[in-house]
Amino acid sequence: GVCIDIDGVLCNLERTWIDFLCSKNIDFRPISSLDFSGHLYDHERKRYDALKSEFRESGIKKDAYLFEGAKEFLHCLKEKYKIVLVSARPVTKHHRIYADTIEWLKKNELFYDVLVFEDNKRSWALKNIEKIAFFVEDNFEQAVKLCGVGLKVYLMLHEYNLCFRHKDIKRVANFKEILKNENIFNISHPTAA
After folding, report:
1. pLDDT at 29 over 80
2. Quick one: pLDDT at residue 161?
3. pLDDT above 70 (res 52)
4. Confidence category of residue 48, pLDDT binned at 50, 70, 90
5. H helices present in 13-139, as ranges
6. Is 190 helix (H, G, I), strand (E, B) or coil?
7. DSSP 8-state secondary structure symbol assigned to residue 64
8. Termini Cα distance of the chain
9. Strand 83-87's sheet: what is its strand order?
10. How far apart are CA 120 and CA 106, in angstroms?
11. DSSP run (H or E) holding 175
């Protein structure tokens, strides 16, 4: 099967987070890091942690933005692979995230076979390595750990990971690049490049 991260790959969590901050009238800096505390002018960690908790408990994730082409990407993949969504969303700390995630997946009609919540993606991948064709990530550190165990990894390019490079990680700007690289073409357009 294929393993696909949710946030930063299917879900535009950065845009959703920025909308949340704007609704609270909080100034932020442009996206340049996965650690959103760097976006706040007020670097007080407790304030950031409280905001992040409020964000996770607010229910906003069920209405989070979807990246363009995500639904079609999964549709194309399902013809050839079992789809496993692997997310590090903190469902044990913020229990509503599980239900919000399921609702978001249904609302956006996103196809998947299995949903896994796992902080340690590397460890999980090692237990399932024979079954994984490739992984799609947006977090460079996670991507390095995954390719370090021998997995093929695609890194979805975002402003916060542009400066990172690794010889074994394939950087892609969109879903079409992955499909093309894997020789998967839309069924309704079999000759599409």
Report:
1. no
2. 84
3. yes
4. confident
5. 13-23, 45-57, 70-78, 96-107, 121-128
6. coil
7. P
8. 23
9. 114-117, 83-87, 2-4, 134-137, 153-156, 169-172
10. 25
11. helix 175-181
